[in-house]
From TrEMBL:
This is tRNA uridine(34) hydroxylase. Catalyzes oxygen-dependent 5-hydroxyuridine (ho5U) modification at position 34 in tRNAs. GO terms for molecular function: oxidoreductase activity, acting on paired donors, with incorporation or reduction of molecular oxygen; transferase activity. The keyword DNA-binding does not apply. It is an enzyme of class 1 (oxidoreductase). GO terms for biological process: tRNA modification. Its EC number is 1.14.-.-. Pfam families: Rhodanese, UPF0176_N. PANTHER family: RHODANESE-LIKE DOMAIN-CONTAINING PROTEIN 7-RELATED, THIOSULFATE SULFURTRANSFERASE/RHODANESE-LIKE DOMAIN-CONTAINING PROTEIN 2. InterPro entries: Rhodanese-like_dom, Rhodanese-like_dom_sf, TrhO, TRHO_N. SUPFAM superfamilies: Rhodanese/Cell cycle control phosphatase. It comes from the Bacteria. Coiled coil: none annotated.
C-alpha cells in the first residue's frame, strides 16, 4: 500500500560555498554517514576551498543536512537553491574529496574576496540589456545547447578548464566593457569572475544564485531566458519556476536532447542522437542497443543498478 509520505515530492538542494576548509578530509566519512542515515542521495564535493554538490531526499532530511552543514565552521551562509522532483533524481550518495570544488585549474584564486559584483535576479535583465555589457555563459557547450540568456556569448568549451584559455583569446572583446557572467547555480561564474578580475578587468558581474535562482524568482513573462536549464541529475533540465523540463539525455553520449533533437532520424532511444551519430560506428550502436535492452529489463524487474547508465 502506498502511503501519503511515499508519494510526497522529493526535495532537491543544489548548494555550494567557497570557504577555507582546513582538514576537509576528516569531514568526508561523517558527512556520508549523516546523509546515508537519512536516505539522502546525490553528490557532495569537499576541497580546501569549500563545498559543492546537489542532493535529494525528504524535506525533513534535506533541512537537517543544510542545518548540519551550516554548523560546520566556515560553511554558515551556504548558497542553496531548492527545487523538487517527482522521484529521487540520483541513485546513490557520494561524498568525494577533490582538489577544487569546481575545476578550473588556476591556482591562487580566492572567490570570497575577489569575485565579481553579485547581481540579484531582479536586476539581471537591466544589466544584460545594456549595450555596453558583454554577457558570457560560463557553462559548457552541451549545457548551452538547450538554453541560455538572450544575446549571451557561448565560449563553446568542453570543460571549465578551457575557460581561462577562451578569456585569453578574447581579451580585446572584454576590454572597456561590462562583463556579466552566469552559470547554473552560481559557483562557476563566481570563480570565473575572480579569474577575469585577476587579469585586471574591473567591471565584472555575475548572477547571484545562477540560472536556477533566476528561473525561480523571475516570472516567465518578464524573463530573458530562452530554452531550458541543464541540471546534473536524472531530471536533465528545469524551466521557469524550476519545473522539470522536457529535455532527455542521450544514453550513448550523455548529451542533453531537446524535443526537436528527438524528432531527428538519427535519434534512437539509448542508441544514438544527432550529436553523436556521425562519431559512432554501427558496432558502437549495436553495443548501445544491447545495453539499453538490459536497462529496460532491469526496470521491468525493479532493479535500479543499471538505470541511468
Amino acid at each position: 500500500m502506498t502511503t501519503e509520505k511515499e508519494i510526497q515530492p522529493v526535495r532537491v538542494a543544489a548548494l555550494y560555498k567557497f570557504a577555507r576548509l582546513d582538514g576537509h578530509e576528516a569531514l568526508r566519512a561523517p558527512l556520508a554517514g549523516f546523509c546515508c542515515g537519512r536516505r539522502i542521495k546525490g553528490t557532495l564535493l569537499l576541497a580546501h576551498e569549500g563545498i559543492n554538490g546537489t542532493v535529494a531526499g525528504s524535506e525533513e532530511a534535506i533541512t537537517a543536512l543544510i542545518d548540519h552543514l551550516q554548523a560546520i565552521e566556515g560553511l554558515d551562509g551556504l548558497e542553496v537553491k531548492y527545487s523538487s522532483a517527482a522521484q529521487t533524481p540520483f541513485h546513490r550518495m557520494k561524498v568525494r574529496l577533490k582538489r577544487e570544488i569546481v575545476t578550473m585549474g588556476v591556482d591562487d584564486l580566492d572567490p570570497p574576496t575577489s569575485a565579481g559584483t553579485y547581481v540579484e535576479p531582479a536586476d539581471w535583465n537591466a544589466l544584460i540589456s545594456d549595450a555596453d555589457t558583454l554577457v558570457v555563459d560560463t557553462r559548457n557547450a552541451y549545457e548551452v545547447s538547450i538554453g541560455t540568456f538572450k544575446g549571451a556569448v557561448d565560449p563553446k568549451t568542453a570543460s571549465f578548464r578551457e575557460f581561462p584559455a577562451w578569456v585569453e583569446e578574447h581579451r580585446e572583446e572584454l576590454e572597456g566593457r561590462k562583463v556579466a557572467m552566469f552559470c547554473t547555480g552560481g559557483i562557476r561564474c563566481e570563480k570565473a569572475t575572480a579569474y577575469v578580475k585577476s587579469l585586471g578587468f574591473r567591471q565584472v558581474f555575475h548572477l547571484k544564485g545562477g540560472i536556477l535562482k533566476y528561473l525561480e524568482e523571475v516570472p516567465a513573462e518578464e524573463s530573458l531566458w530562452q530554452g531550458e536549464c541543464f541540471v546534473f541529475d536524472e531530471r536533465v533540465s528545469v524551466s521557469h519556476g524550476l519545473a522539470e523540463g522536457e529535455a532527455e539525455l542521450c544514453r550513448a553520449c550523455r548529451h542533453p536532447l531537446t524535443v526537436e533533437d528527438r524528432l531527428s532520424p538519427k535519434y534512437a532511444v539509448g542508441v544514438s542522437c544527432p550529436h553523436c551519430f556521425e562519431a559512432r560506428s554501427d558496432e558502437d550502436r549495436a553495443r548501445y542497443a544491447e545495453r539499453h535492452r538490459q536497462v529496460e529489463l532491469a526496470q521491468a524487474r525493479g532493479d535500479r543498478r543499471h538505470i541511468g547508465s
